[in-house]
Amino acid sequence: MEGDDETSGPMIDDEIYANGVGGDDEKRSRPIISSEQLDVEAYASLYSGRTKIMRLIFIANKSKSNQAMELEALRMAYDEIKKGENTQLFRDVVQMIGGRLGPDYAMDLAWCEMVDRRADQKKEKLENELNAYRTNLIKESIRMGYNDFGDFYYAHGQLGDAFKNYVRTRDYCTTAKHIVHMCMSSILVSIEMSQFAHVSSYVSKAEQSPEALDPVTVAKLRCAAGLAHLEAKKYKLAARKFLETGHELGNHYNEVIAPQDVATYGGLCALASFDRMELKNKVIDNLNFRNFLELVPEVRELINDFYSSHYASCLDYLGNLKANLLLDIHLHDHLETLYGQIRHKALIQYTHPFVSVDLHMMASAFKTDVSGLEKELEALITDNQVQARIDSHNKILYARHADQRNATFQRVLQTGDEFDRDVKSMLLRVNLIKHEYNLKGSRKP
Amino acid sequence: MDAVQALVANIQGLSSAGDISHLHVVLKQAPDSLYAESTRLLPVLDQLDPSKHSLGYLYILEACSSGSISKEQGSALVLPIATFINSCDTEQIRLAPDKFLSVCKRFKDQVMVLEEPLRGVAPMLTAIRKIQTSSEHLTSLHPEFLLLCLLSKCYKAGLSILGDDIFEVDQPRDLFLYCYYGGMICIGQKRFQKALELLHNVVTAPMTVINAIAVEAYKKYILASLIHHGQFSTSLPKYTSSVAQRNLKNFCQPYIELANSYSAGKIEELETCVQKYKEKFENDNNLGLVKQVISSMYKRNIQRLTQTYLTLSLQDIANSVQLNSAKEAEMHVLQMIQDGEIFATINQKDGMVRFLEDPEQYKTCQMIEHIDSSIQRIMALSRKLTAMDENISSDALFLGKVGRERQRFDFDDFDTVPQKFNI
Fold first, then answer.
1. Which PANTHER family match (chain A) (predicted)?
2. Which terminus of chain B, N or C, has less C-beta within 10 A?
3. Closest approach of chain B CAs to the CA of A6, in angstroms?
4. Does the beta carbon of A422 lie under 8 angstroms from any beta carbon of chain B?
């Protein structure tokens, strides 16, 4: 695989250039995914709340080699944090900036102190309130009290405590709506904490709610479930969840996920795990998901290319997207696996309908050289994913049709031998056990 | 001397009169006097005919050979014992199997002392055939015989008794040794499948304490499995005794590591592992097998290529299986074609190898015969299984145990209507 990357490197560069010229105007309208360097500002504008800061910091960490981008991301993170109350995060970011952005972005101790003091006051106030509610045993107020505590801790970055308080509200929930609210808060915090096992359990809890949920909440839950599956490497399930996400989602959940992400995550997971039928039925013909795909035309195009077997252009799109997708906080870990699976799928699909395939043509279709392709095919054949054999002399791939009759004969004989062997050794063991038992019996009659 | 002479007369008289059982009684009362005279008994044997007076001959031989004897005395004994084994009467010796076994064991010991194991092979085989009640019966002579075969490198002779399926065992230890030696003989004959089967029996046999035979067998099992199957699974079947499951791996760590490095399919990795534990393998006398493991990896890799390629140049083969030159690859491929491990043709003009499919079409008469014989074999086995099942269901001890457990639940049922429960 590494070999091909090197050889196809220049080609991808060309493609980047071409795309960059052609799609300049469009880019601005959908900045999250482009083959150009990531537009950090536009990207960040898709999100709100804590995830925005975390994503910016993530980008800064990942793009150490690109100082301009790193500083840009840190600057925006700094600004964003200043709007909130999370002093710990503030200190971290200031340390990461390390004075590289001038005096405007230096440590602001006064601000920190002020925020901390205010936080202490607020905490005290909340505690008093909560105690009062608890002595009066007003369920609804206690719930509100805990919920406020959760919000308070969340704002200050103490996610563990926030989670605990949100969960505590559960005992005081009186309506289904409250439960759903509790679940949504817990899911949010769990995602921030990367505790995706919690996410799944609270999603299912919320879905069990007896009252019908409004479409936005349903869409949010689908996204959260999709994320949880993605992190658990269950790409097929993740794809299903993302595909089921309703277009009502809009920008309502941008403290977690942007609709563009739904399209990208869903699209890539689907490509990697669905077969052709499913891809057609559930992705391409899916009116609902099409709305999402419109937001990220590259993903839409690459899915269509994949389906219509234009693998070269599909792989080009993937290559172009790679750099930016690696900056995604959720997807980066899984990108290599997904890309590998998509490439394998493409190779398998390419060979499937043919009795014989010219490796030169196939290599050009995949923008790689013959020897690299041979290696990839060899791995797939060894894994029994492609039923074919390579004529390395003439560089042709021949499909191999398993001879059912011979295979059956072979298996029957083998099974017979195995049975024979197993039964014999079993009889032997039985005899030994019997012997031992007899010995015992004779020793103490 | 009189007592001995009287006994000889008795033997001659009773044997020719055909009253063997009476003779047996007489002989049983005699041993003390015989043992006392053991040193002077040898010449007495000349007065007896081993084929007619087998039982008496056996008792006197046993008396001669028991106790400590010098090397010269021992070598003097080897010949008469060998003649006796060859010509003795089966029915007579079966009356005193203990004596016969002990004579044979002494015989084997003497042959070993003389360092001429080959002399013992043929008589021992005859002895086994004479003393065993059926071919399924494992006598304690089996392991001794196989040991002699191993030492004298008469693997073929050993194979002749390994072909019999063993079901009846007197002593578990005999079985362990029998299977272990048998496994070694089969490995020597490159019959890895049979060897694996035998070694497997040792490893999975029921045992309450771990024993050295099982440990050594497990080591050889790992190596043979790598050579034959190209893989080794460290998990033992669940019927293996828990002692074995817990301990075997700890005793065979280098071998487990070898198996792990084998599974990666890289020659260098395997060789570094072999180097690392070379001394250990050498001490276990397994270095030769370990070397076979290495060469089997080349084969395995070439075999894998046949799955993926139709044609491949010798140079490419050499590269992908990490051989030094195309010439070497050609030798390997040639050897494998000869052994029927792959089906291929080599085109020396352009250095290409063309891999073919297995030409077996399962249409020939031989194949049909083979299948038929397999079916017959399995049917026989299944009959045996049923018989065994019936046998156990009517076994008094088994019924006693089951009955006891049953009684606890349902006393009346068990006591008054015993025919009611069927197992």
1. 26S PROTESOME SUBUNIT 6 (PTHR14145), COP9 SIGNALOSOME COMPLEX SUBUNIT 1 (PTHR14145:SF2)
2. N
3. 21
4. no
pLDDT digits (tens), chain B, 423 positions: 566 777 777 777 777 766 777 777 777 776 666 666 666 667 777 777 777 778 878 887 877 777 667 777 777 788 888 888 888 888 888 888 888 888 888 888 888 888 888 888 888 989 888 888 888 888 888 998 999 999 998 888 888 888 888 888 878 888 899 999 999 999 999 889 999 999 998 898 888 888 899 999 999 999 999 999 888 888 888 888 888 888 888 888 999 999 999 988 888 888 999 999 999 999 988 999 999 998 888 888 888 888 888 888 888 888 888 888 888 888 888 988 998 888 888 888 888 888 888 788 888 899 899 999 999 999 998 998 898 889 888 878 778 777 766 555 544 444 444 444 444
Same domain as B274, residue B152: no
Cα–Cα distances in Å, from A96 out to A69, A76, A105, A107, B112?
13, 13, 11, 11, 81
Helix (H, G, I), strand (E, B) or coil at B341: coil
Question: Rg of the Cα trace of chain B?
Answer: 28
DSSP secondary structure letters along B360-393: --S-SHHHHHHHHHHHHHHHHHHHHHHHHHHHHH
Tokens of B22: 């009476």
Residue numbers in A near B316 (CB within 8 A)? 392
Quick one: tokens of B271?
Answer: 């060789």
User: In this complex, do B206 and A433 lie within 8 Å of one another by their Cβ atoms?
Assistant: yes
Give the total residue count for chain B.
Answer: 423
Q: Are residues B152 and B240 in the same domain?
A: no
B64 belongs to a structural domain:
yes
Q: What is the pTM of this model?
A: 0.68
Q: Which residues of B touch A431 (CB under 8 A)?
A: 167-169
Which domain does B225 fall in, by range? 171-308
Taking contacts as CB-CB distances below 8 angstroms, the residues of chain B near A426 are 239
Query: Is there a single domain that holds both residue B302 and residue B318?
Result: no
Choose one of B292, B308, B324: the last residue of a domain: B308
CATH of the domain at B329: 1.10.10.10
- Name the domain count of chain B: 4
Is A419 at the interface with chain B, CB within 8 A?
Answer: yes
Write out chain B residues lying below 8 Å of A401, CB-based.
Answer: none
Q: Is pLDDT at A148 greater than 80 in this prediction?
A: yes
8 Å CB contact of B392 and A420: no
Residues B29 and B50 in one domain: yes
Measured in angstroms, the CA of A403 and the nearest CA of chain B are apart by 10
Å from B305 to nearest chain A CA?
A: 9
Answer with the one of B91, B122, B156 that is the final residue of a domain: B156
B283 and B202 both lie in a single domain: yes
Q: Could you tell me which residue, A13 or B314, shows the higher pLDDT?
A: B314
Contact B310 A377 (CB under 8 A): no
B384: chain A residues, CB-CB within 8 Å: 427
* B302 and B178 co-located in one domain: yes
Q: DSSP states of A94-162 as a string? A: HHHHTTTT-GGGS--HHHHHHHHHHHHHHHHHHHHHHHHHHHHT-HHHHHHHHHHHHHHHHHTT-HHHH
The verdict on a CB contact (< 8 Å) between B311 and A436 is no
Q: Looking at the partner chain, which of A394, A424, A426 has a beta carbon nearest the beta carbon of B165?
A: A424
Query: Token digits for A81?
Result: 């944090």
A-B contacts (CB, under 8 Å): 103
* Within-domain flag for B4: yes
Q: What are phi and psi of A138, to 5 degrees?
A: -95, 110
Q: Say if A432 is an interface residue toward chain B (CB within 8 Å).
A: yes
> Which sign does the torsion angle of CA A12, A13, A14, A17 carry?
positive
- Residues in chain A with CB shorter than 8 Å from the CB of B355 are 389
Q: Is residue B364 part of a domain?
A: no
Q: Does A409 reach chain B within 8 Å, measured CB to CB?
A: yes
- Do residue B146 and residue B6 come from a single domain? yes
* Domain contains B163: no
- The answer to whether residues B203 and B217 touch, using CB atoms and an 8 Å cutoff, is yes
